[in-house]
Amino acid sequence: MKILEYTFEKTTEYLNKEFNKGKFHAAGICREIFKNGNINISEAKEFDNSKELAAKVMRRISINPGTIHNIECEVNTTKYITKLNDGLKVESVLVPMNNYTTLCVSSQAGCRFGCIFCETGKKGFSRNLSTEEIVGQLYNARFMLKNSSIKNIVFMGMGEPLDNTENVIKAVKIISDQRCFNIARKNITISTIGIPDQIEKLISDLNPVPNLALSLNSAVNSIRSKIMPINKKHDLNDLKTVLLSYPLRSSSAILIEYVLMSGINDSYDDAMELIEFVKPFKVRVNIIPYNENSCANISSPSYDKVKEFSKWLADESVFVRMRTRKGSGLMAACGQLGKNFKGSRQPPA
Fold first, then answer.
1. What is the tens place of the pLDDT at every residue in 212-238?
2. One domain for residues 105 and 186
3. Does residue 337 form part of some domain?
């Protein structure tokens, strides 16, 4: 029983099937493990009169989130590397906000999509992470790193979440379960390069849906295809269609991520194309200056250029934010994760 892969409902079903028990004992198990980080469920009050049952259940439960292999810190930003059972390593990042912490989690060991500005994509792909390995990043941050202020989860680490949709959906259900980690879906964001049928799967399998972030980076098909090979399979027209169907709360919007690269996607014409692309949607555009990594022939624009590009959007009433760099010195910023990862190049399915 890999408990980090179990919602409260699934835990209840398991207890009913195996021990003829139900919600009462499931509540104790979930509280001790997900709220307190304690695998000794016999300490739960629900097992005060049934220590023998607790011992039997404990023999079935396993928790294997991976081992924290290394921790690096820079101005409160923390990157930690998790070593998985098979020796692969994935990276996660804790980013302090005003009154809480955001945890950036990985969904794959590597990535097979090869976006030219991304360190992870350059290093290739090994495998999908299991649900336990995804949820385990939060478990470790909460209970091994003792960070109790995590209230926001972003699937913006290593890998493409919607290339591992099934396990990501399961992880979202566990993370948002009130009896488990209880992080509301309005505080969970899934970032994707844009795979229409998998976005549709999010819509059908998760209600309410989490926030959606689209790594766009160009609103010109010819340019986007050069920097993001996925665009040759799913172009901007495909993305528009599925984005129009994505259900939004009254206070939410689709997040458009735009990595600004000098001389590639930072011209006035690029800005006008972006404005035209986002017109049908309620969006927030994040302008992210390219973070230096080992990807060749790409440079970051100047601050003045980032400011100018952002102003072009704002002048046309586009909600835009200039993202500040956090963790770039740790190779923990957008596009930098996976410096020490070595995968094998595999084509997208």
1. 999 999 999 999 999 999 999 999 999
2. yes
3. no
Marked catalytic residue, from 104, 118, 295, 334:
334
Q: Are residues 10 and 122 in the same domain?
A: no
* pTM, two decimal places: 0.92
| Shared-domain flag, residues 111 and 259 | yes
Q: Where are the alpha helices (DSSP H) in the chain?
A: 8-19, 23-30, 51-60, 119-123, 131-143, 165-176, 196-205, 221-227, 236-244, 268-278, 303-314
Q: Is the pLDDT of residue 346 over 70?
A: no
Residues 76 and 56 occupy one common structural domain: no
pLDDT tens digits for 155-171?
Answer: 999 999 999 999 999 99
Strand pairing partners for 101? 96, 150
Annotation says 30 is catalytic: no
| pLDDT of res. 324 | 72
What's the pLDDT at 347?
46
Q: What is the mean pLDDT of residues 18-24?
A: 98
Same domain, 13 and 53: yes
164 near 107, Cβ under 8 Å? yes
The Cα 226–Cα 115 span in angstroms is 9
Q: Do 54 and 112 share a domain, yes or no?
A: no
Only one residue has tokens 């980080």, namely 37
Contact status, residue 114 vs residue 124, Cβ threshold 8 Å: no
CATH of the domain at 173: 3.20.20.70
Residues 6+ apart with CB under 8 A from 223: 264, 265, 270
For residue 310, what are the contacts with CB-CB under 8 A and spacing of at least 6? 287, 320, 321, 322
Beta bridge partners of 320: 285
| Residue range of the domain that includes 17 | 3-60
Q: Within a 13 Å sphere around the CA of 157, how many CA atoms are in the beta-carbon half?
A: 29
